[in-house]
Amino acid sequence: MLSASLTTLEALTSDTGSTFDGERREKDKVPSGKGSTGVWFDVFGQTFAILTLRTLFALSITLLVVGPIVLILLGIILSKLDRFYLFSSSKHHHHQEGDDTVPLQGLRGMTRFPLILLTASAAVIALAVLIAQVNPYIVYSSPYAVWSMMLSGWFFAAWFFSRAIDYARPTALHRAYSLLWMFIVDWVLLVIVTIFEQRLKLVGDYFIVIYFAAVFLATSISFLEFFGLQRKSVYADEIAVHAYGEVPASRPRSSSSSRLLAPNAEEQPPQSTTAEPEEGEEEEGQAADELTSLLRGSKRATFARRTSPHEHDHVGQNDSLDEKQSRVFGFEQSWSWSLPTWTWLLQFLLLAVVPVILTGQIGLLLVTGTYQTLADGNPPLPVYLSIAVFSILILAPLMPYLHRYSYQVPTFLFFVLVGTLIYNIVAFPFSTNNRLKLFFQQKVDLDTGINQVLLTGVGDPYLNEAINSLPSVAGQKRECTASSTRKGLTECAWHGISPEVVPTPHPGVPSHHTYPDWLTFHIFRAPNSTEARIRLWGRNTRACKIEFNQPVSDFKVEGAGDDKRFQRVPEEGSKEIRLWSRTWEKEWTVNVKWQPKPGNGHGLDGRVVCLWSDDNETGVIPALDEIRHFAPNWVAITKNGDGLVEGSKAFLV
After folding, report:
1. Which residues of the chain have pLDDT under 70?
2. How far is Cα of residue 306 from the mean position of the Cα atoms in its chain?
3. What is the pTM of this model?
4. Please, which residues have CB within 8 angstroms of residue 320's CB and are 6 or more apart in sequence?
5. By the 8 A CB rule, do 452 and 495 touch?
6. 296 alpha carbon, distance to own chain's centre
7. How many alpha carbons fall within 13 Å on the CB side of residue 201?
8. DSSP 255-267
């Protein structure tokens, strides 16, 4: 931190530009001008990417507008070229025997992506809820085991359903439909992000902008792939030729006229490997009947032979339909033989590199900053849900390709899932390297001599196990309640060993006999007044405080500094005044004012408290030494308040 501060200071002092010059924003301030809201993030902890909020907002608006327009234009062009196979279930075809439809199966795979995504995401969210209920603190010591479980669980679930559906209904459009769905979902997210940028100035979700840009480019590539396909009409003609052995008709005709001009079965050329007879040629000596064509025997073409408008697409194509079928992957649609086989790699690089890097590091940063806050009382479920959500975001770009994965990697990840799931359920969540934080404080009533040790932390069984290991607690009755100062934690109290924070006049005198001398105070108040002066000092301490049972409206500490820019007391008043000094055993004089409450008279009551936190020597706070010595090695002790020991006396004026 110091080196970073020095580097920043050197950079600021050596700057000779006009970036930080401008009008004075406030009186008595440096004329540094007015800055702009910035957006920055690091890459691998090595480099900072910096841009202004205005630039990010402009990029968001541009992507929101340009993305859909580009895809719509590509779709229109492909439709005009008769190459848009998406959302096309069949193609109308006309042949000599009548009209027919050729199935294209272009709707196959359209709803596959949302079903698989929802199923796999539900699986990891179920895992998050399961761990949060069964072993909620395992992430405290094993965050990477939880990450491994979530990532492998989502990957295996998505792969299993992708392969199962693809086995039942294979399609070459799985990647295109998946990317299109991703584009739609990310576009909606980008709309929300753009609103946050413009209205709330929130830019923490900047990665969605980059995520959407990558998905948009990958989806555009999928649309461009369709330019390499045959026209749907050409494909339908090829299917007709293969099915009926005919060249498609030149223009639409009725089925009756087609049958009238069509040769009968006897006029069909013989199937032979030798030269085929020309059109109109017939066998000699063939008897005529009522079914014989009127044009039978004519050697001169009465009607000009018109070629199909798509016939030029067939000419020059030496590959037969069977040869094209051999290029089709598995049992996918037969028209997909000409789809490019290398563009998936470019799409994968766009989807998996930059988005995964940004999303992955944000997820790691978020979890690293929150997974050990469970000891402070934070609920565990949000931590597991954040891991699940970022696991989905990291692996979602793999959805268009999972149906092509072989079983080896998913099988290995399945065993990783099983192993980490068992570990996360049964493993003990704390260790010597990841110790549970428990909060210690000892309170002494200097008026009555009552001495209580309070230990605060996560409840059963961890807090009780730590307390049960202490010899001084054996046979005592302890009281455990919900902590009033730390939400979500349990506080247990029991009679503790007397502290030795104040030296006694004689070594043989027990410390509890000197309790009244630890703190001295005097209160002065005029009759029927709502003002009072409190003088206090404590032995061997530099910190005290005054606690009131009702708020005071104002106060003044004699000899203390006063900053007029800030209010000493908020509008609703204050119930506590904390006093600090650089010198030991300083005497404070505090003047307070309060507003009387109806029915409570004009009096004021509370407690005067002094704090001791000297833990440099063993034996000063024996109760703390006992916990450190006998508590399990997976426990770490810290103080619950400003002082390890609090000694207090009550007052009433």
Report:
1. 1, 19-35, 93-99, 239-326, 334, 508, 599-601
2. 63
3. 0.78
4. none
5. yes
6. 78
7. 4
8. HHHHHHHS--GGG
Question: What single string gives the DSSP state of each residue in 101-132?
Answer: EEE--TTTTTTHHHHHHHHHHHHHHHHHHHHH
166 three-state secondary structure = helix
* C-alpha span between 176 and 219 (Å, rounded): 7
Structural contact between residues 114 and 378, judged by C-beta atoms closer than 8 angstroms: no
Q: Please state the φ and ψ torsions of residue 90, each to the nearest 5 degrees.
A: -160, 170
Q: Are 518 and 647 in contact (CB under 8 A)?
A: yes
pLDDT of residue 276: 43
Please give the pLDDT value at position 270. Answer: 43
Residue 74 three-state SS = helix
Contact of 353 with 227, CB cutoff 8 Å: no
Q: Residue 121 half-sphere exposure, CB side, CA atoms within 13 Å? A: 16
What are the distances in angstroms from CA 355 to CA 185, 397, 398, 537?
15, 9, 12, 61
Long-range pairs, 242-250, Cβ under 8 A, ≥24: 242/321, 244/95, 244/96, 244/97, 246/95, 246/96, 247/307, 247/308, 247/311, 247/314, 248/93, 248/94, 248/95, 248/308, 248/310, 248/311, 249/94, 249/95, 249/96, 249/308, 250/306, 250/307, 250/308, 250/309
Distance CA 385, CA 379 (A): 11
Q: At what angle do helices 381-395 and 143-168 cross, to 10 degrees?
A: 50
C-alpha to C-alpha distances, 46 to 42, 50, 440, nearest whole angstrom: 7, 13, 40
Q: Count CB atoms within 10 A of the CB of residue 618.
A: 11
State the Cα–Cα distance between residues 52 and 64, nearest whole angstrom: 19
Concatenate the DSSP letters of all residues of 85-99 into one string: -TT--EEEEEETTEE
User: Looking at residue 235, what is its pLDDT?
Assistant: 73
**What pLDDT does residue 41 have?**
80
Closest C-alpha among 595, 587, 612, 632 to residue 468:
632
Question: Where does 446-489 show beta strands of DSSP type E?
Answer: 451-457, 479-482
Q: How far is CA 384 from the centre of its chain?
A: 10
In the chain, where are the structural domains located? 112-228+341-426, 430-560+567-653
Q: What is the mean pLDDT of the chain?
A: 82
Phi and psi for 579 in degrees, rounded to 5? -120, 130
Count the Cβ atoms, other than its own, within 10 Å of residue 209.
24
Structure-block tokens of residue 319: 């590959």
Contact 548, 576 (CB under 8 A): yes
**Cβ–Cβ under 8 Å, residues 116 and 165:** yes
| Residue 51 near residue 39 (C-beta atoms within 8 A) | yes
| Residue 325 one-letter amino acid | Q
How is the chain split among helix, strand and coil, in percent rounded to 5? 45, 15, 40
